[in-house]
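User: quick one, fold this
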Amino acid sequence: MAPETAIEQLEANKLLTPIQRKAVTAIFNSSSRGEVQLANFQLRTTSQILQDLNSNKSRGAIVSAGTGTGKTLAFYLPALAHISDLVNKNEYWSKALAIYPRNELLKGQFSGT
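Assistant:
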């Protein structure tokens, strides 16, 4: 899916503020691989995480997909969009925490799985 289509859908569901729209657009435009195309699971994940972040309930999300399919973008897109509304000059605090099973990932890469 083209980035503009994804942004339109997120806006139609009232999930992006104007600042978040600028952040998401910047993420899409900063790719060193040319134009970014989103998979459906990435848009669904982004929508769900943004909905959860805008609610009163504490929730988590698990994204499961094959190697190289874009799980990292599925997490970082909504995280960075949300953080863009939280950034204030001269305010410094952790705004997101990403935990990766890095050792297991490296084992799989070295063994060819």
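User: anything notable?
Assistant: The mean pLDDT is 85.
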